[in-house]
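Hey,

The postdoc asked me to send both predictions to you directly instead of through the lab channel. I've kept everything plain text so nothing gets mangled by the mail client. Protein one:
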Amino acid sequence: MTSIKVSPLADDLPFGSKITGITRAAVKDERARKQIKAAFEERGVVVFKDVEPTEDMHFALSEIVGPLQDKQRGATIRD
């Protein structure tokens, strides 16, 4: 079992959670996944502190709150 900590983003805000203790093991742990999803659903915004800054971790965290959707992007005109 892994241990994550969920706390308010700020004491004076009615929204937002800060989550620490996120590891690869945590994103696989069902209890931690439920805590992350509940924080997102209840507070609307989640900030992950000190998390591994990789694409794999980003996808793993994103999949906790819902399935990823493949969106086509329009062409970007660059100067």
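Protein two:
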Amino acid sequence: MKAWGLYRLARRTSLRVSASAVVVIGQRSPMYSAFALVVTLCSLSVIFALLGSPFIAVLQVIVYAGAIMVLFLFVLMLL
């Protein structure tokens, strides 16, 4: 992929991270906020992959978007 394409992909991903982070804060429903947090964490892993850190990108998805969000959703279901 050319450098210009990577720049456009990084820019779109950073806008997606910013928008979903605003949704996490501004959403009244905790479930929608949790799903927006998953989108934020997965988009951050794309940014890490674009920066050349594939291990951190995979770790971000497995640990944060996977394990911690499952625990968070489990607590939400108990409420």
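Summary for protein two, as requested: The mean pLDDT is 88.

Thanks,
C.
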